[in-house]
Each structure stands twice: as C-alpha cells, then as structure tokens.
Amino acid sequence: MEERRMLRTPRQKYGEEMRLRRTAARLTQEELGDQVVCSPTLISHFEAGRRLPKPDDAQRIDRALGTDGFFARWLEDLESRYTDHFAAVAELEQLAAQIQQFALSLVPGVLQTDGYARALFGAYRPNHTPEELDELVVIRTQRRRILDGPAQPVVWTLLDEAVLRRRVGGPRVMAEQLHKVANMAESGRLRLHVLPYGVGAHALMQSLLTLMTFEDSAPVAYVEGFQTGNLMDEPALVSACQTAYALALSDALSQQESLALVRAAAEEHAHDE
Predict the structure, then answer these.
(1) Which domain holds residue 162?
(2) Which residues are CB-contacts of 265 (< 8 A; sequence separation ≥ 6)?
(3) Which of 10, 206, 223, 257 is 20 to 30 Å from the Cα of 87, by its Cα?
(4) Is residue 186, in this structure, part of any structural domain at all?
(5) Are residues 134 and 174 in the same domain?
(6) What does UniProt give as the signal peptide span (predicted)?
(7) Taking a C-beta distance cutoff of 8 angstroms, is the pair 88, 50 a contact?
(8) 8 Å CB contact between 101 and 118
(9) Best CA proximity match to 148, nearest among 108, 94, 195, 200
C-alpha cells in the first residue's frame, strides 16, 4: 500500500525551508539560536511549524543564514489573524475531508452565531471595545465558510449536555444558537450527537477535541485549553484521541434523540426571555 504523505501547512513549509537552509549553513539549532538571540527550543518550534518568528527574529535568521531577507519577506504572507496555537488548525480546517469535534462547555467555533461568539469574546476581555469584538466576530465568521459547501468537510459534532444548558449571551441568543445547530443537523450538513448528563463519566470529559482527516495525508488531533492548544500528528497520540472519541460517541444519544434534546433546550431558553 502506498504510504500516505503528511499534509504540510504553509507554516510547516516555512519551517522545513528554515531547517534546510540551517543545515546547509552547517549550523545547529543552538548555534542559530545564539545568533537570533533565542533558545534552541524556539528554533525547533519554528522549524516544526508550531510557531512563527517575529519580524525582528526573521531578519536575524536571514542574516545568520545569508538568505537576503527571504524569511522576513515570506513571513509577511504567513501572518495570521489567529493566535499562535490555533493558526495551523485554522489552515488545516480548510483542507480537511472530515472533521469530528467534541465540545465540553461551549458551541464549537465553526457553528457559532454572531451573537453567541460576541458574548464569548466579551466574557474574557474585561476592557473590550465594540470595535474589537466586531473584528473578532468577523474572523470567526470567516471560519464558518468551510461549511458553506454541500459536501466537504463532513462534520460530526458531539456535544456534552452542558453546552446546551450554559446560557451564553442571554436566552434569545442561546435559543438562536441551538436552533441553528439543530437546523444544520436536520439539513444533513452535520451529524449531531449529545452526551447527556445521565451518562456520568465519559472518555472526553477532560477536554475538547477536534479530529481531522484528509484525502491524501495522515490525520491530526487538536486539544485546547485556556490560552493554549496542542496540534498532534504523532500516530499513537492521534489513535488514542480517535479511540476516546469513539468511546464517547458510543455513550451519546442517537441523532434523533439529540435533535429533540437540542430543540427542547432551545425552547426552554426562549421561554425565559
């Protein structure tokens, strides 16, 4: 069987080119780090595509490697509107053939309404301005475009019941959000399942999880916490995440039962206006 190639994001291509140029210059990561004034660990992150250098660092990399501004110029095309830990994930979402997502406490970003997203952003920005929230909502709206097409990616959405109960943005916003999720499921755009409270402990109750598969490359898994995230492509780790997702899914309600629960929760929020 032909071995599947690993999908490389633009960041990973940037890092791979840096590694090749560093090797050609006969520098170790530690030696390059000394010239860039950063740790060899950070150089490793650059070369793996997990982090991007700051513009000043890119200029120092060019000087150290004799690349005449190559990495500084390329960096301008890679600057992302997303946080460092999520930028590569946002790129991969655009390429995925299938996305399986589990949400522990909030509706996944690609399914969020503007009102729901705005309430979330405002909750953890104590000194926000309306303009800042507008910009963040626009960015999230752009992510939702991956669902505009009728076919790919195939999306599975597994929600803990807590997602349905925690009122984000008030009763009207919450009702609108849940009805949107249910409408997408009924239209066939996503497969929806809910893990009810009655299940008790389940395999994913410690973290949100996103699994992505691709037509011609290896799958990845992504978990996220406060101000941090971990994108995994190591086969053993991805396999463990896939197993945990399958276990949790086996405890979930059927799609029809899940739809009924989501609709009922939406109506409960609406009645509290």
Answers:
(1) 84-271
(2) 164, 165, 178
(3) 206
(4) yes
(5) yes
(6) none
(7) yes
(8) no
(9) 94
| CATH at 260 | 3.30.870
pLDDT along the chain (273 residues), means of 10: 56 90 95 93 83 88 95 82 74 86 94 92 83 83 77 90 96 97 93 97 94 86 88 91 97 97 97 85
Residues 194 and 112 grouped into a single domain? yes
Residues 15 and 106 in one domain: no
Length, in residues, of the chain? 273
Helices 29-36 & 40-48, crossing angle to 10 degrees?
Answer: 110
Can you give the pTM of this predicted structure? 0.74
What pLDDT score does 7 carry?
A: 62
Per-residue DSSP letters for 126-192? TT--HHHHHHHHHHHHHHGGGGSSSSSSEEEEEEEHHHHHS--S-HHHHHHHHHHHHHHHHTTSSEE
Nearest CA to 238 out of 47, 4, 15 is that of 4
Helix (H) or strand (E) holding 208: strand 208-213
Q: How far apart are CA 49 and CA 268, in angstroms?
A: 45
Residue position matching structure tokens 């060899």: 40
137, 118 contact by CB (below 8 A): yes
163 alpha-carbon distance from chain centroid = 18
Q: 212 and 92 in contact (C-beta within 8 Å)?
A: yes
Structural domains in the chain (count): 2
CATH number at residue 24: 1.10.260.40
